[in-house]
Write a structure and sequence with these properties.
By secondary structure, the protein is of the alpha/beta class. It has 13 helices and 20 strands.
Amino acid sequence: MTEKLCSVGLDVGTTSTQMVVSELRIENRAGSFAVPEMAIAGRTIRYQSPVYFTPLLGKDRVDARALRRIVDAEYEKAGISKTAVDTGAIIITGETSRKENARAVLDALSDYAGDFVVATAGPDLESVLAARGSGAVEFSEKTGKTVLHMDIGGGTSNLALIENGEIRSTGCLNVGGRLLKIGQDGHLAYVSPVLKGLLDKRGGEKISQSEVRTLAETLAQALEMAAGLRERTQLLDRLTTEGAGRIPPPAGAVISFSGGVADCIERKQPWLAYGDMGPELGQAIRNSRLCAGAYRLGEQTIRATVIGAGCHSAQLSGSTVFYQNMAFPLKNLPVVKLTAEEQKLPAETLSARIRDRLSRLDTEAVLAMPGMAAPDYGTIAELAGKISDGTDGKRLILALEQDMAKALGQLLALKLGKNAQILCIDRVRLEEGSYLDVGAPVGPALPVVVKTLVLNRNGSQRREENMEGARIWS
């Protein structure tokens, strides 16, 4: 059996906004008499929009209405309607995610991406999407080489350390080409607050090419530190994005680049070609230790993140799922995670813990747990009893890592009755603080998206994308 899904990726970045329409091919890879094993067997890009400058209302507000006009026009050019979209992601990235009306942008565009929306993307998620969309993950998988991928955009540089095709860690620095906006007369139109202490100039003042070059060289040094090519100093701490992870020094890694600045590494541009510091930053990177050894430009550069969003954000659950009385899609479900040790607690203790953890949220949640490898009937029945006692008859949504969802779901249905609302999926790894969307069935499997719902980098509430959940399960 083969099915096709239409996926849309929309990236609203610091500098640019772009859209990609992809076709995902779903196949059953199991034999005729085996349990179905649904997988995303292929991804084909059907349409790519032009790259637009992200429209702004002043320096701190994204123009949501203008964005919607852009997307309306691009849907028409692509020949698709909103009802034709099965899955997708809208991500608000880089400095744009700090704009005061990022929520308004999301609200204005959320109905364009089918059943799934990834809202303001954290540095982990950006790093994963760019690494996949640029081809760096595939390159590492095919060659067996360790790759440190750097997606250098307008406001941030998102890093991913990849070993044998697996993303091991991520990081993010406030390094990008759009941290300065410069008029053709050399006057500064914008200076990012992250440059405080690195550049003693304000908007409206004039800046020379040599001053921009010196700043670009400093930012390139921070990237060298992140790559383990220069001794780490306070500069790296100053420019590391709040809450972002740290990449362990990847000895001997191939450095890989994507993002708009990557286009300026091997092609020297006039320093004011784009009205920012991108050309100088690209050349500073080219002349740095980052390019002294093995390095590569991604198969996609400025489009890496949006292609990652359109092609790599959706995954499939296992095929032995169970659900009854459930209406799809399910959106924005926070995750409550039990550890393997908690899963083994005595019945009353585990039931009380489940009840307590779920009661702390003011909305329903996904109860995630590792599950068990090859459990017998008695073990599954015991776990079903603990879970049913801890949920007090409420709608039950379970996500397990091990392949046991159908058996557990059937036993929960026996305990809770035929009118109970139950969803039990497997082969999905989640962590506390992530969110889950679940779409309508594709054959015997369910499409899922693990995501960051909203990240406010200036506010008090901040949730990061779970790295394990971001990996492809197909």
